[in-house]
Design brief:
Helix 5 (137-155) crosses helix 6 (171-184). By secondary structure, the protein is of the alpha/beta class. The relative contact order is 0.17. The two termini are 34 Å apart. The protein is built from 10 helices and 12 strands. It has a domain at 8-96 and 187-267: P-loop containing nucleotide triphosphate hydrolases (Rossmann fold, 3-Layer(aba) Sandwich), CATH 3.40.50. Helices cover 35% and strands 24% of the residues. The strands form 3 sheets. A 6-stranded mixed β-sheet has the order 8-9-10-5-11-12, with helices on both faces.
């Protein structure tokens, strides 16, 4: 239910904020192939917004548009009420958008602590000379950023592995380290690309708890891609559904669950 202002009340009574990001008529092509076909949807402040669909639906392509990896041929991306110009990923990151990846993208030979510290790069302003001699501003920045990183490490309960090289960790913990690196950037919008892919039941429960805690305690807006429908329906405030690059559903988890076109897409009903 929408009111005359910017807030939105979910069917379960949770109030989420105004529109943070608005994707307007997005079309993305690779040669003659349309990965995304004229899709519009928004992400509201403070919500957990799921993007779901069968394999090849265009979900990761949409996340790449949001994060600046791809620039659509048609349509507009609006962020905080202003049209966003074409940006590179590092520029998008400076605007408060962080992400994790479908395929883990960590520095395997570096420790957990050092990997998470890379999430603070946009917060570091000292020049190369100051960093080299580690005096003045560079020293103060290092201390401040280490403190911020240690808080994230404590929050995600990975203190015991903070000095362990990431390459030695099991898959589930690597996923948590990648989440920690994204959180270290203190994002306004956190993009999670299949955060629970390949996890066992216990690992999924832990990750679900952390996602809810990030949203609740930090107030971070989250957009996630996930194939586990049980997880999606439990975590999400709203769900947008893609299939073959089109949007076929958008609404509350219950509305999406009962949408016949969504049911057909997931059951593999033939397309005309």
């Amino acid at each position: 239910m929408k009111d005359a202002q910017d807030s939105y009340v979910t069917p379960d009574g949770r109030t989420i904020g105004g529109i943070l990001m608005d994707m307007r008529n997005i079309t993305l092509r690779f040669g003659g192939v349309e990965a995304i076909k004229d899709i519009s949807f928004n992400i509201r402040e403070g919500e957990i917004r799921a993007i779901i669909g069968p394999n090849g639906a265009g979900k990761s392509s949409m996340l790449n548009v949001i994060s600046g990896f791809y620039n659509p041929q048609e349509g507009e991306v609006w962020f905080r009420g202003a049209k966003r110009p074409q940006m590179k990923p590092f520029q998008v990151a400076r605007h408060g958008i962080a992400r994790t990846f479908q395929n883990i993208a960590l520095f395997e030979g570096m420790s957990v602590l050092d990997n998470v510290m890379t999430g603070r790069l946009n917060k570091m302003k000292a020049g190369m000379v100051s960093q080299a001699i580690w005096k003045g501003r560079a020293e103060r920045e290092e201390v401040e950023n280490r403190e911020a990183v240690e808080k994230v490490i404590d929050f995600l309960e990975i203190q015991a592995i903070r000095k362990t090289p990431v390459g030695r960790l099991p898959y589930g913990l690597k996923k948590r380290v990648e989440l920690a690196r994204a959180l270290a950037a203190e994002p306004n919008l956190l993009l999670l690309d299949e955060p629970m892919a390949g996890m066992n039941v216990e690992e999924k429960e832990d990750m679900s708890r952390f996602i809810l805690d990030v949203n609740d305690e930090f107030g971070t807006t989250i957009a996630l891609i996930e194939h586990d429908m049980g997880v999606v329906m439990d975590l999400s405030d709203r769900v947008v559904v893609m299939d073959y690059g089109r949007k076929i559903g958008d609404g509350s988890p219950d509305e999406v669950r009962n949408n016949q076109e969504v049911i057909d897409a997931y059951l593999g009903v033939a397309h005309d």
